Amino acid sequence: MKSNPAIQAAIDLTAGAAGGTACVLTGQPFDTMKVKMQTFPDLYRGLTDCCLKTYSQVGFRGFYKGTSPALIANIAENSVLFMCYGFCQQVVRKVAGLDKQAKLSDLQNAAAGSFASAFAALVLCPTELVKCRLQTMYEMETSGKIAKSQNTVWSVIKSILRKDGPLGFYHGLSSTLLREVPGYFFFFGGYELSRSFFASGRSKDELGPVPLMLSGGVGGICLWLAVYPVDCIKSRIQVLSMSGKQAGFIRTFISVVKNEGITALYSGLKPTMIRAFPANGALFLAYEYSRKLMMNQLEAY
């Protein structure tokens, strides 16, 4: 049966929320290490050093700093991303002159995912800003860049509103868009190409959980390899603006390369690569299975 576009959008949004939740719960400690190493590469010799220091400084809970905004960020981002992904697939079909039910090629799906990510960035930027600041609060306080304060989600939100107003939540929006739009082309492209490889002639919808998770992991690896330096600059802008430094993408990029070298743009790459497989595998597994379950329920109804 043909589903109502509004119902289809609601299913995509709910499945995206399930995927975002699975992604955060699986990968949050590695994300914390990534942001710390990106923003303060001189404080940590590597992933192991960062893990040991974080544990000794703030205990096990330090690995889960920013989990609340990370959950909000990922649920919001993936809900909007997958809902808009469905709409953008229809736009791609229209541009390509295809029937509304026609299967898209892997490249066309990648293009649809890239378009959808621009909308997702608008809801992701504010919540990711709060997450990054919470994750690096200890380093900002001990380095003297900010005064000691309450280390809570609400205190960070109040600080942003007091200093910069509502628009302050969009520090790093341009770099978020620079990361999301090309990054999600590779993300969905890598995922769909991997699914095609595992399907080998069968329908991609028949794939089991292991090929789905592997395909999601490949998509995550493709995304981060393509846009990691952009993400590093975004983290710097969002965290350092906490101390009043207002620098744009180009100025921050030039400053990092000039003062720290090109390798500083890849600080924290190791935890990101380790995180990419389980986190994105869990994301797509939760998305595909929850979506399939809801679609089956709709057809049965």
UniProtKB/TrEMBL annotation:
Record key words, sorted: Membrane, Mitochondrion, Mitochondrion inner membrane, Repeat, Transmembrane, Transmembrane helix, Transport
Principal cellular location given in the protein's record: mitochondrion
Catalytic activity: L-ornithine(in) + L-arginine(out) = L-ornithine(out) + L-arginine(in); L-lysine(out) + H(+)(in) = L-lysine(in) + H(+)(out); L-ornithine(out) + H(+)(in) = L-ornithine(in) + H(+)(out); L-citrulline(in) + L-ornithine(out) + H(+)(in) = L-citrulline(out) + L-ornithine(in) + H(+)(out)
Subcellular location: Mitochondrion inner membrane
Repeat (Solcar) residue spans along the chain: 7-91, 104-197, 207-293
Keyword Glycosyltransferase attributed: no
Molecular functions (GO terms): antiporter activity; L-arginine transmembrane transporter activity; L-lysine transmembrane transporter activity; L-ornithine transmembrane transporter activity
CC terms in the record's Gene Ontology section: mitochondrial inner membrane; mitochondrion
Gene Ontology biological-process annotations: mitochondrial L-ornithine transmembrane transport
UniProt membrane topology term: Multi-pass membrane protein
Family according to the record: Belongs to the mitochondrial carrier (TC 2.A.29) family.
The protein's role, per its UniProt record: Mitochondrial ornithine-citrulline antiporter. Catalyzes the exchange between cytosolic ornithine and mitochondrial citrulline plus an H(+), the proton compensates the positive charge of ornithine thus leading to an electroneutral transport. Plays a crucial role in the urea cycle, by connecting the cytosolic and the intramitochondrial reactions of the urea cycle. Lysine and arginine are also transported by the antiport mechanism. In addition, catalyzes an electroneutral exchange of ornithine or lysine for H(+), a reaction driven by the pH gradient across the inner membrane.
Record-given protein name: Mitochondrial ornithine transporter 1
